[in-house]
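User: My advisor, Dr. K., asked me to get a structural model of this assembly before our group meeting. I'm new to this, so sorry if the format is off. These are the inputs:
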Amino acid sequence: MTFATAPGKVILFGEHAVVFGRPALAVPVLQVNATVTVEDREPAQSPSSASWLERISLDAPQVGRSGSLADYPSGPSPDPLAFVIRSVLDALTIEPAWLHIRVDSTIPVASGLGSGAAVSVALIRALSNHLGQPLSDQQVNQIAFEAEKLHHGTPSGIDNTVITYSQPVFFIKGTPIQTFSVGKPFSLLIADSGIPAATRDSVADVRRLWEGDHDRLEVVFSCIGGLVMQARSAIRTGDLVTLGNLMTRNHALLHELTVSSPELDRLVQAALGAGALGAKLSGGGRGGNMLALVQEGDQARVEQALKSAGSRSVLITCLS
Ligand code: PMV
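Assistant: The format is fine. Below is the predicted structure of the whole assembly, which you can bring to the meeting.
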């Protein structure tokens, strides 16, 4: 049996603008993860009469999938899990024997924590390792990016990159991975609005806005890009007051892009009212998670305020 795991992630700054070529900052979240196990199984029928699709069975209880790969949709809109398995086998040019694959995840779906990318990365690694031909990080990242297109339409590639490399990432679409340094450890509360929202929809809506009002949207994207650069240096120098301020300004610009929601705005206001240094939505928006930057003594108060304002759950993550 072979096992692989991949973390969740949050985008600290720059979501949406990153799709249009601006920089963004993201970090892995190790408190949640996707795990995949691959094991050989007994042939269910005469091996010669079974196609390779029939030889692989897949269980993914969190997304309600169970059965032979032959039963999964293929063609122009394939199932992302089946797509990843096919892509790995194509990359290895291998016809596997009888396999059973199980996918589990503690990352909430459609909440901006990278559940789709984490499942892809864990699946690619577990399968290629099990078949004795581990893929390089670059190959893992490339296959996970192709799967992200099925989830998100026109993704920037930030989710699969931060999850594949499991390190803080300063990301610009189409350029080699860069990391960033943290001058002084800081804590973030990650609060779930409890509202699932498809990143594919918010990304498509922002694109439509951009098509209809190109010049204004380009200005908003560039303002967000400017905040990302300032945030990277505030993180490097450990200037948490400035960092918090930049987060709240990034949230206002995301609001202008129409990707916030009354629930997310309420959580941001609650965090700021309880003493957070800054707060913003994270990821695709419209629902999902938001972040609050908190100083050590304020954690419990801000967490309580977030829960009172409707957050379903709050995670604490420390960047150091
Ligand atoms: O997967 P999410 O919801 O964290 O959002 C990804 C971030 C976006 O910038 C909205 C889309 C992208 O592909 O970069």
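One thing worth pointing out at the meeting: The longest helix spans residues 214-237.

User: Perfect, thanks a lot.
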